[in-house]
Amino acid sequence: TYSNRVYTIKVSLTDNGDGTITAIPEITYVDEAGATQTVNEALFENSYQTGGGLILSGVKLLNGRRLEDQQFGFVLEAENAAQGKFTLEARNDANGAFAFDEITYTEADVDPATHTGSYEYTVREVDEGETGYNYSGVVYTVTVTLEDRNGRIKATTAIKGTDGSEELKFSNEYHSEGEIIIGGTKSLTGRDLEDAPKFSFKLTGQDKDGNPVERTATNDANGAFAFGKIEYTQEDINPTTMTGSYEYTVTEEEQNEAGYTYSKVVYKVKVNLEDNGEGKIKATSVITYVDKDGGT
After folding, report:
1. What is the pTM of this model?
2. Exposed/middle/buried for residue 175 (C-beta within 10 Å: 0-12, 13-18, 19+)
3. Which of 63, 180, 224, 291 is surrounded by the fewest CB atoms within 10 Å?
4. Contact 57, 51 (CB under 8 A)
């Protein structure tokens, strides 16, 4: 900044009669209040000001489900002589982007001799302990180098994560699981079931990748049978709707035992999945079949 003070200098001369002249100056200026001030010297005071700012931003990635707005938190921490100790916090948007408030720099943050400065910050993700999630343990060190360019501070960054990465990127995994047991009951007329040979049943379907799913089961003495657990994870769930659906077919297999007839009924089992967002998948089934009259 430049001084706007105007000095008036009146010089009084006296001839000493010996070939010399004595010159006496009178220096005055008008202050901000309009009063005339007399001073011993004309002094101009200037100041130098410079400034700049830095916004640190990053990206959040989530595998296993849809990322929600404001879902994850991040913290920037600093502790240095010039700026002291401070903390900034940020949360992601629906696209995964996050940014901290601007860090500002002034002439106090640069060396007046070299016109440079250097500061270091750490950035990490906050483990908020939500069920079903694992949180990133990567800690980033951000080194900021300042350069004063005639009233404007340029800030450049060098980022290094504990995993070796060079950009602020946090990756998380969401894991959920659930299961269902599909089973039924066998009835037999004309003979006690416990005295008859075991009957065999077959479940068929496909997994999310189109691979075949096949299970077999036999009845116990009370006629009950079950195919065992079918397990599901977040991979079986639509990450947008947090739901899923799978269909299976259950039939009785012919054993060709003399004197027995076997059921021709084909059951359709639709399993509906719903992820509660806390690591648990609820599986419910709807069972249908086509009767002899063609009705479902």
Report:
1. 0.72
2. middle
3. 291
4. no
